[in-house]
Amino acid sequence: MIRRWCCALLVGLCALRAGAADPDPAWRDWLQRFVTPEGRVVDTANERISHSEGQGYGMLLAVAHDDRASFERLWRWTDRNLAVRDDALFAWQWKPSGDGGAVGDRNNATDGDLLIAWALLRGAERWRQPAWRARARAILAEVRGTLLRPSPYGPLLLPGKVGFVEDKRAIVNLSYWLFPAFAEFQRADPDRVWRELPRSGLALLDAARYGRWQLPPDWLAVAADGRLSLVPRLGTRYGYNALRIPLYLSWSRQGDAGRYASFLAFWRDFDDGPIHPATTDLSDDATDPYNAPNGVLTLAATVRRLRDDPAAPAAPEGPDADYYPATLALLARLAEREAGR
User: Fold this and answer.
1) Segments of the chain assigned E as strands
2) Residues 14-25: pLDDT tens digits?
3) DSSP of 112-153, one letter per residue?
4) Where, by residue number, does the polypeptide cross the bilayer (predicted)?
5) With contact defined as beta carbons under 8 Å apart, do 257 and 308 qualify?
């Protein structure tokens, strides 16, 4: 009897260590709703495609929940299905189909590449897997070797290898500056660019302010002489890309209060209204006529708490139906934990 009890206890402890019994119901719910048995993260609001960003976020969250089994499942699918290029980067998009699915676009997405590298570095450290660290370093070397362009602000991080340099200007996405990861990149891949990228990102954020609330856009054109402009063909919104910027800033403990003023002003302006929009069009200040998903409201509440906003609301209860806002909610919780609150 005692032997059976001890064996059962040992099995339970091993399962807990592997993540199979992770006590966080939000993480288990996220896995159940958005990750297939093979390890594919499903973007439920976007024709059920998968992308390198989603795989990177999933892997990062798996490390945070000490869930090695899920991490390995996610990484195995990513490596088998998105590592199809002739470099160290990943195809950004995979589409399901009747015959099993395939890569829909071989171009990379630099934020997805960096998220995967970050997750691999953290996984390698937590579970002592040097091969994962080696893959992360290869990704980082490819990014700094092929996806950076000089500018008066410092190095620009191109969103992908194809399609973002035109007419003597580069198009960037400031939410691709992964501020909380740069110090870890520097330790793994000692190169000064990982110290320069945070500075260039902050300089661009200080300059790229538009509309009533002086918010940064999803997409920004940077001319060779440093002039900045919106990119109408890609949209003129402070949208679902850019709303990640204040989360990344607070996660990395960027302390300049002025950099948060525009985000706080936007959120506070709707505190007493019936609608809490997620985004605004920077060309005419129009806002969404509907409430932001709970995950976006959770992100905003988290940043406001981290900035000691006395009017910060509580995060809303209840999971979002779709992948992206549900993921933002988990990331916000992780950021708040790592930022020391």
Assistant:
1) 50-51, 93-95, 102-105, 148-149, 156-157, 165-166, 169-172, 220-223, 228-230, 237-238, 280-281
2) 333 444 445 799
3) HHHHHHHHHHHHHHHHT-HHHHHHHHHHHHHHHHHSEE--TT
4) none
5) no
Q: State whether the Cα torsion 306-307-313-318 is positive or negative.
A: negative
Q: Which of 53, 113, 142, 320 is catalytic?
A: 53
The overall longest dimension of the chain from CA atoms, in Å, is 78
Cα-based angle 15, 26, 117 (whole degrees, multiple of 5): 75
Residue written as token pair 């948060």: 260
Q: Which two tokens stand for residue 303?
A: 């940043």
Range 157-165 average pLDDT: 98
Domains of the chain in start order, with CATH, are 19-145 (1.50.10.10)
pLDDT in tens, 164-175: 999 889 999 999
Look at residue 10 in the predicted model and tell me its pLDDT: 38
Indicate if 111 belongs to the active site.
Answer: yes
Summarize the confidence of residues 117-126 as an average pLDDT. Answer: 98
Is pTM beyond 0.90? Reply is: yes
From the list 111, 218, 320, 336, the catalytic residue is 111
